Amino acid sequence: MAASLIRLHFHDCFVQGCDASILLDETPSIQSEKTAIPNINSARGYNVIEDAKREVERLCPRVVSCADILTVAARDASVAVGGPSWNVKLGRKDSTTANRARANSDLPSPFADANTLISAFSVKGLTTRDMIALSGIYYISSFTIAYTRPSPMLLFRSRIYSNGTDIDPGFASTRRRQCPQTGGDSTLAPLDLVTPNSFDNNYFKNLVQRKGLLISDQVLFTSASTKDIVDGYSKNPRSFAADFASAMIKMGEIQPLLAPNGIVRKTCGSILVN
Ligand code: HEM
């Protein structure tokens, strides 16, 4: 769940800023981001944030926004798996709107090349280095792709059957056994090969060994503009952890919604304040 909460924060902040818009449920006036393509049957941890909000409301009603709770939860999730800690500035307000179209357009695609990924982050004020450091989160994800997607294997099938030079042959054949060229779409495929839930730089070591699962993972090592950073993180876990923390701080400050704008919701799934 730790990685999922960090992802929820990322998917919130990339769509009209860190304003908890991702937590809003569908209503006649709100097109929920929960059903956007990158989120549907995939983003999780909503209930963790809603539970935390309930506790906070009990102690201190209508003061702490859902956006701040999500930001703090992402930091605590990193600490919980042995990752870095950082100070979270507070004061974000919650939105009264969500934007499903922006969730579909602004969250990066797993088929993207390195330049497209770089610009998807740069329009949000994050550097190439921030993007690569944040991607290191995959290593602690206990997520299994096929749990959630109707045709999940499409995400990486083209890569493992590509016979390209950017994939380790042993890795490709292991993955092919799990994922036949046709059918088999309900088979589970862990995003990462090694035991999750401990924060380290193995994601980058895997990329250097050409064992990235998604196309958007492996391009980080095959592309000249990102290769050196991946290489550096694979050798220096401390610089990865430090850069991860600073990238998370920057991500948490994308387009902040501050007073007098925004609201403090009573529950995170709706815009009711009383
Ligand atoms: C660089 C561009 C990125 C792309 C193209 C991308 C794409 C994806 C895709 C396609 C999945 C699988 C979803 C599914 O099949 O349901 C996924 C999962 C995931 N992503 Fe990303 N992602 C990116 C960046 C990030 C960042 C910056 C974070 C967090 C800081 C993140 C955290 C996660 C996590 C934790 C999962 C597993 C889900 C879970 O454990 O609940 N991703 N991502």
Automatic annotation (TrEMBL):
The keyword Metal-binding is annotated on this UniProt entry? yes
Enumerate the residues binding Ca(2+) 1: D12, V15, G17, D19, S21, E33
Show the SUPFAM superfamilies listed in the entry.
Heme-dependent peroxidases
One Pfam family of this protein, by short name? peroxidase
Q: Give every Plant heme peroxidase family profile domain span.
A: 1-272
> What GO MF annotations does this protein's record show?
heme binding; lactoperoxidase activity; metal ion binding
Protein name, as recorded: peroxidase
Species this chain originates from:
Dorcoceras hygrometricum
Q: What is the lineage of its organism?
A: Eukaryota, Viridiplantae, Streptophyta, Embryophyta, Tracheophyta
